[in-house]
Amino acid sequence: MGKRTRTQTAAEQKQYAVEAEWTTADLALLKELKKAEALLPDDAPRALLSVRLSVLTDDTTSPVRQELDLRMLARDRGYRVVGVASDLNVSATKVPPWKRKELGDWLNNRAPEFDVLLFWKLDRFVRRLTDLSTVIDWCLKYGKNLVSKNDSIDLTTTAGKIMVTIIGGIAEIEAANTSTRVASLWDYTKTQSGWLVGKPTYGYETAQNESGRAVLVINEDAYKALQWCRNAAMRAKPASARRMVRVLVRAGLCGPGLTTSTLIRRLRNPALMGYRVEEDKNGGVRRSKIVLGSNAKPIRVADPIFTEDEFNSLQSALDQRRRDQPARKPDGATKFLRVLICHDCGTNMRVHKTGYNGRSYAYLRCYECKSGGQGAPHPEAIYRKLVDDVLKVLGDEPVMTREYRQGAEARKEQQRLEQSISYYMTGLEPGGRFTKTRFTKEQAEKTMDDLIKQLEAADPESTQDRWVAVHNGKSFRERWEEGGMEAMAADLLRVGVKCKIKRTKVKGIRAPHIHMKLMIPKDVRGRLILKEDDFAEAF
């Protein structure tokens, strides 16, 4: 079976370095644009420039040219440039705007700092209609404008609003059909002997045959590793799974992250016989089962690594050394993972379960300490103690949510008050319209005083776009009572709260003494504020 490989061209492999692209002429133009920008009034709309490039070729527009063009567009429209979100070597197909390092930070955390988002061309900004629709919805929600230099996208124009409607409709149709297409594709794929999509099972890799179609071939290193493991398991004195892992990692046939459970799962996969398989979830245990074709026989998709007899004998050998482990919990065996850490080595504490004489035992152990350190028994008791300590410190804190407040209405009201005060001040000048009679003068003075009081009472911050923290009426104690340990663990992990577990050996006693130290950041109140995810995946 022929195998061909593809190589990238030099242009495809090149990553863009922006520092080397600014010429003397570019810098001179940039200086002129910034001088013109300095003359703008203080209330000029604030523009954020979005610059993106995946790879630099002769056909692409360099980030320098994109930035300069957008700065000229901002000058022509009277925008003040407040920032440049430059995401280089980033694919618009793979990474949506809100997940890019620069632009994502502006969209998620710095929305009050700009009014309009400028980009050079649609394909420089997004390449998926659903992504563009999501950004447009975000702009409408937060009162931002979206302007393209080379496309008819401007949320303040009639043509731009029509474009939004069309894009939104197309995106909705595409999103509604996505799940159907994907499910249909996978159902069709399972019935085919050829390899169409998906990640190959360990032991195989994709290649192209002579006709250019994708096929599965045996990976040589994986083949050696699997065959060695089978021979080691079939010996008179079989090697343990832990021993197999050490040998494979030391030989360089597997990566250092290989675990015994992963190795056992690989050895038990019936795909090693060359058959198509699918995941079979049974009680939280990850297993694979053979897919049968229309003739009720297994579908072969590759040459076998093990024959059926070899595979079955391997399973029998593994069964003889199998330990009955408790069923895997869907949410994991360890609660407060990445919150509970070892005092000595600083790594995460994890639950390890063992069985002896029909009884099950659970211990909290770490990674770096020898043999996991002194095992901390009774994880549930440690969980309860952690919950009590957290409730004492943070339970009464109010649950605050971050909300976005626009200052446009407050700015209009401030401008109205200032214009009204100016109007009455002009009328009260000698010879003005309100000085003709005593009555009109007194009424005008009273009205102007009321307007001045309203202007003085207005909060200056209300005229600015800003984030505000709003109490939702609950305390974190109530929030955690409703959501349980899972909700508390998620909040502690988000906030950065840690709990150090120190285990001290006690003479004559098997179980060590456990000391817990809760570590809470100084700015915990700010971190506790809940932030709505405007870009949560809908599909």
From TrEMBL:
It comes from the Bacteria. SMART domains: Resolvase. InterPro entries: DNA_bind_recomb_sf (IPR038109), DNA_bind_recombinase_dom (IPR011109), Resolv_N (IPR006119), Resolvase-like_N_sf (IPR036162), SSR_resolvase (IPR050639), Zn_ribbon_recom_dom (IPR025827). Keywords: DNA recombination, DNA-binding. Pfam families: Resolvase, Zn_ribbon_recom. Residues 201-324 form the Recombinase domain. GO terms for molecular function: DNA binding; DNA strand exchange activity. PANTHER family: DNA-INVERTASE FROM LAMBDOID PROPHAGE, SERINE RECOMBINASE PINE-RELATED. This is Serine recombinase. It comes from Streptomyces yokosukanensis. The lineage of its organism: Bacteria, Bacillati, Actinomycetota, Actinomycetes, Kitasatosporales.
